[in-house]
Amino acid sequence: MAQKNYFTERDKENFYKLSRIIDEELPDFCREFFIALESRATTLTRLAYAYDLKLFFRYLVTESSLFLGREIKQIRLDELENLSGIDIEKYLSYLSYYTNLDDETRKNSNKAKARKLSALRAMFKYFAKKDKIKHDPTVTVDSPKIKDKEIIRLEGEEISKMLNVTESGRGLTARQLAYHENTRVRDTAIIGLLLGTGIRVSELVGLDLNDVNFENLSFVVTRKGGSRVQLYFSDEVGGLLYEYYLYRVAEKAIPSDEKAFFVSLQNKRFSPRSVENIVKKYSSVATPNKNITPHKLRSTFGTQLYRQTGDIYVVADVLGHKDVNTTKKHYAAMSDDIRRKASTKVSLRPTTEYDNNDKNDD
To answer: Does one domain contain both 174 and 222?
Structure first.
């Protein structure tokens, strides 16, 4: 199946920002790294890397004695081999509290530092692999310790309440109810798909009409990095999707060349922000004490799946985690429940065998 290549206005904006930073604000050798990164990362990810590398090189020419007073564009790749692990650790320390070019104070949590270190690791690893440098100063640097946050998810009746509010509109404002009659079927299908499959928002907005197969209850999503994966949905989710599908194909106002499965009231493909707003609208009524986002609906699905299967590898595969450790980190707190249930599954002496032995002894 051919891979889709739709480009949103936000993608275009990010692409131009990325090009400008590479051309004007990074050393020339960085261009090769970003070209190599293009087939493995989204435009948004590459732009984040560009911002992080820009900050690193600005630190070198303003704070590091090795490059102090230099122009960023003048830095050569071979000169980076003069950096040590200690230099990288000093940079991470600098990130804790610094002043940017606009004289604004900036702080970075350990999570933010880890992300910036990840960008450096990726760049140094690439050039070391290509034998462009012999020394990678990041290999001896430990990642900042990140304190795991409590996972916020919907539990039990909250899941049903979320769907009920979406379907009925009960609790919405008068203004929201005015739109609800036209969006009820679509919004219920969106919430049901997020809760029932755990797909990412980017995967949901990327769905096309021909990606969904109602005969075998499956659909194809484009994962991070562009890979295409077939997933499945339940009869219950299928019913919600099919009801919207019938409305979608019958709606004559939707242009024939619009292939998106989910469309806005303007009959265009959804943006991720629009989906976030939909989730916020209904969750603020269903669970006002929880800040529910599409990602938390994804966590809700992952939790349900892990409880049902007890198999972290299945959860990782369905959620599209490349590293199972990512999955373990999010659902490790549930492992004790799984282990407790497992302890009751194995009998040292099955009852039937024990009973038969007793009869033979008699």
So the answer is: yes
Q: Is residue 135 part of a domain?
A: no
Q: For residue 349, is it within any domain? A: no
Please give the residue range of the domain that contains residue 42: 10-129
Same domain, yes or no: 317 and 259: yes
Domain count, the chain: 2
Between the alpha carbon of residue 194 and those of residues 7, 197, 200, 262, 300, the distances in Å are 23, 6, 8, 13, 9
pLDDT tens digits, residue range 197-242? Answer: 999 999 999 999 999 999 999 999 988 777 889 999 999 999 999 9
How far, in Å, CA of 121 to CA of 343, rounded? 42
Residue 194 lies in a domain: yes
Alpha-carbon gap, residue 168 to 171, rounded angstroms: 9
In percent, the amount of the chain with pLDDT more than 70 equals 88
- Per-residue CA distances from 180 to 163, 168, 186, 187, 291 (Å): 14, 9, 10, 9, 22
Task: Report the side by side order of strands in the sheet with 212-213.
Answer: 212-213, 218-222, 228-232
